[in-house]
Amino acid sequence: MGHRHQLTDSVIQVNHLSFKYTSQYVLEDITLHVRKGAFLGLVGPNGSGKSTLVKCLLGIQTPQQGDISLFGEPLKKFSGWDRIGYVSQKANSFNSGFPATVFEVVSMGLYGKIGLFRFLTKKHKQKVYEAIEKVEMSAYTNENIGNLSGGQQQRVFIARALVSDPDLLILDEPTVGVDVHSVQQFYTMLKQLNQEHGITLVLITHDIGAMTDYVTDVACLNKHLHFHGDTDTFTESENEMMSTLYGHDVHMLTHNHDHSACEVPTS
Ligand SMILES: Nc1ncnc2c1ncn2[C@@H]1O[C@H](COP(=O)(O)OP(=O)(O)OP(=O)(O)O)[C@@H](O)[C@H]1O
Predict the structure, then answer these.
(1) Do the interacting molecules here have an ipTM over 0.95?
(2) CATH code for residues 3-92+167-263
(3) Phi/psi zone of residue 223: left (φ > 0), alpha (ψ -120 to 50 degrees), beta?
(4) Does the Cβ of 52 fall within 6 Å of ligand 1?
(5) Average pLDDT for residues 24-49, to the nearest whole number?
(6) From CA 53, how far away is CA 33, in angstroms rounded?
(7) What angle do CA 90, 19, 240 make, to 5 degrees?
(8) 150 CB near ligand 1 (under 6 Å)
(9) Phi/psi of residue 253, each to 5°?
(10) pLDDT tens, position by position, 150-199
(11) Where is the ABC transporter domain (predicted)?
(12) What are the phi and psi torsion angles at 36 (to 5°)?
């Protein structure tokens, strides 16, 4: 593989990144590579720095040390922000009665491209329908967003991020408030986006749980990056690694599932 090819295959490259808000570092010496086509589960207990790392990736926070490249370009020079879709943790908090349909919410994802209050062309509308289809919400196209369940709303926000055809989708805790059965369906949908539509995915969660059945790679963060590798390597050493990482404070939550999730009290 030539150097040039490696560059184009790289979606996220983080080198020796350290970050602090005040005097204490919350991320220390993080080196992480996400290749094109990966579905990375970024896991870590509450307060481990997951959201902070994402803020650094999106250029919202600037690390004191280290550097970041997106799609092979240093962050400072990077301009292809429309290649990145981001769905935040708090996206699914619409009240019932919020006066917008699924179609309208998803079409908001186009405004960055076409400008607010412009008319949607037929082609734009087609994009909106396709994005809704990709998250399997076509049956709800004209439904009010407020009438949907948390999991359905989260799908709609993913469709809004998908409407501009991103190459990378970053999802911050997308399954908070989604029931266990829907979580499995949700992950299946994400896996399809990854495999069938070739979108590189970064899924941030504090719940290891079912995720390991769907992702290709796992990164474990707790200020330091304690593990980064493919899912098989992770599951082989999962229990051992969890206790090495988090010691006897680990509170294991068993799901209806082979794997387990960890919740670690923040110190
Ligand atoms: N704006 C801020 N100013 C100061 N400290 C902050 C700020 N935001 C976060 N922190 C601290 O930085 C650390 C990492 O927080 P961060 O939100 O990145 O963790 P997280 O892994 O995303 O947590 P969670 O799973 O609870 O969302 C925590 O100790 C948090 O208290």
Answers:
(1) yes
(2) 3.40.50.300
(3) left
(4) yes
(5) 94
(6) 13
(7) 80
(8) no
(9) -105, 120
(10) 888 889 999 999 998 999 999 998 877 777 778 888 899 999 999 999 99
(11) 12-255
(12) -55, 135
